[in-house]
Specification:
Blueprint lengths: L1 E7 L2 E7 L4 H22 L4 H73 L7
Antiparallel strand pairs: 1-2
Length: 127
């Protein structure tokens, strides 16, 4: 465990974090400090604890909105995957139908060629 000092609302706090997470924790503290400063600029000095709580609620609000957007995007992604899967199935069916039609046409051409060869009789074979 690492320990670092962060400043939030003008006060320093000694925080523990996992090894390698120090920079992330510092950035999180800076973000919270920035929110506190924005609220202080907007509402003035309304008390340290109140500013900190308001900043935390702002973060929670954004987190809740982000979670809702993520769920919406996940649903949209699932819908798109289903559409894609259906399109792939239709493409395979179309490919099979085209292959069957081409095979049937080739068979008809072959039969027609055989009929013509018999009709012409000893002449030059077609195909």
């Amino acid at each position: 465990m690492s320990h670092i000092n962060v400043t939030i609302n003008g006060r320093q706090y000694r925080m523990a974090c996992e090894e390698g997470q120090e920079v992330r924790l510092l950035k999180l503290a800076e973000s919270l400090e920035s929110r506190v400063e924005q609220l202080r600029g907007k509402f003035g000095e309304i008390g340290d604890q109140r500013l900190t709580v308001m900043a935390a609620l702002t973060v929670c609000d954004e987190l809740l909105d982000a979670g809702q957007r993520i769920r919406g995007l996940e649903q949209e992604l699932n819908n798109l995957r289903e559409v894609r899967s259906a399109a792939i199935d239709r493409a395979r069916q179309t490919q099979t139908a085209v292959a069957n039609a081409l095979n049937a046409a080739a068979e008809r051409i072959e039969r027609t060629t055989q009929v013509l060869n018999r009709t012409i009789g000893g002449g030059v074979a077609i195909g």
